[in-house]
Specification:
alpha/beta, Rossmann fold, 3 domains, eight-stranded mixed β-sheet, three-stranded antiparallel β-sheet, 14 helices, 16% strand, elongated, binds guanosine-5'-triphosphate, binds magnesium ion
Length: 373
């Protein structure tokens, strides 16, 4: 007896394939939706499990058959045999028992097939441990499995994880100082906008020896101006306060600088008016760059939605903040992979100016592989 599984886009297609290969006498043991194996998650369709019986024949039967129907004789005989055996109660019962047994075997085989194997399994488990989302862990594990198939040597899980992550993350896009640059920084409340601006101001002013102007539009929060004023004074750079977005062009004209960093008030993405004001700040500032600060402590779905709400139609770059506070890198990685937007910086502490770095994909991959930056 032969038992085989056939899959097709439709049940008919699977059945035609089965009948074509095993003949009309093939018996359908089970049918249904193709099972969703973890490494073939894109596969959809139907499957049929089919059995056919090639009976033992006596030499005289074989000679008689071969002279009558030389090509399809054995199938005809099998069909007759099956019908005959079904005609007898005892034989029919035996056949039913055999089929039951085979179905049981098939289920066990399925369970074995469903367990991820080899490199793919290791990568999958490691990514889940780092709280990468299930769908990204599966996708990256599948790629690792594919790579391993084309690669004779076992290079170990860490390089494989690094490679599949690097394949998806864009190159970093730190602020470019090719010409005079205005950067508007926006993001959720307390996400680290002002602190990140202070870190960047220190870097451009102290290390790159550039002239820097800070503009704050955050006149809502008590002590917001004081906070950024303190940084400006320590760094010895000018600070201007814009009471309305319309004031920004004059402020920039009044104090020209190589880099203008515009701070904004923290907003909830649910506040439509605030979102509209942010858009207007970007327009009046004629910003060359818009950067959205996203804490790495957020859950991936919230990060993706928040980024979209702040960006609106603008092309923005991301700054991943509070990396040091995140339990694992997986949620942030998953969000970055889903967004596919350029990432400029990672910040990993409250220290100004030290706790900021360019978001090299290698650094993010290392965060996942080693569990820390
Ligand atoms: N651990 C950690 N804390 C950070 C980081 N960046 C900022 N913070 C802290 O987060 C808190 C909020 O930072 P701010 O820079 O004031 O955040 P903000 O987005 O300007 O806040 P609002 O203007 O109120 O919306 C402060 O206590 C910062 O010191 C970081 O990378 N890691
Ligand atoms: Mg602030």
């Amino acid at each position: 007896m032969i038992v085989k599984r056939y899959t097709g886009k439709t049940a008919e297609e699977a059945l035609v394939l089965a009948k074509w290969e095993l003949g009309e006498d093939a018996i359908i043991l089970s049918s249904g939706k193709a099972r969703d194996r973890w490494w073939k998650f894109w596969e959809q369709g139907f499957q049929v499990l089919v059995a056919t019986d090639y009976p033992q024949k006596t030499p005289s039967d074989a000679v008689a058959e071969s002279s009558a129907k030389p090509i399809v004789g054995h199938r005809e005989a099998a069909a007759t045999e099956t019908l005959n055996s079904l005609g007898s109660d005892a034989a029919g019962e035996r056949l039913a028992q055999v089929l039951d047994l085979l179905q049981g075997l098939d289920r066990r085989l399925d369970r074995i097939e469903g367990i991820p194997m080899g490199v793919g399994e290791t990568v999958y488990q490691r990514l889940l441990e780092q709280e990468v989302t299930e769908s990204w862990a599966r996708r990256l594990a599948h790629e690792a499995e594919e790579d391993a198939r084309n690669e004779p040597d076992d290079i170990g899980a860490d390089p494989v994880i690094t490679r599949v992550i690097l394949r998806h993350l864009p190159r970093p896009s730190p602020i470019s100082l090719a010409e005079s640059t205005v950067v508007v920084v926006m993001g959720p409340t307390g996400s680290g906008k002002t602190t990140t601006i202070a870190k960047l101001a220190a870097y451009f002013h102290l290390e790159q020896k550039k002239s820097v102007l800070l503009i704050t539009t955050d006149t809502f929060r008590v002590a917001a101006v004081e906070q950024i004023k303190t940084y400006a004074e320590i760094l010895g750079i000018p600070l201007a306060v814009a009471l309305r977005p319309q004031d920004i062009p004059d402020l920039i004209r009044h104090t020209p600088a190589d880099v203008v960093l515009v701070d904004t008030a923290g907003h909830s993405v649910n506040h439509a008016l605030s979102m509209a004001e942010l858009q207007s700040i970007v327009q009046y500032a004629e910003a060359r760059e818009v950067m959205v600060t996203l804490p790495a402590t957020m859950i991936p779905t919230a990060m993706v939605e928040t980024a979209h709400r702040f960006a609106g139609d603008l092309p923005v770059k991301l700054c991943l903040t509070k990396v040091d506070e995140a339990r694992h890198g997986g949620p942030a990685l998953s969000a970055l992979l889903s967004l596919g937007w350029p990432v400029a910086y990672l910040t990993d502490g409250q220290g100004v100016p030290d706790d900021i770095r360019v978001a090299f994909p290698e650094t993010i991959a290392q965060w996942i592989v080693k569990g820390a930056l």
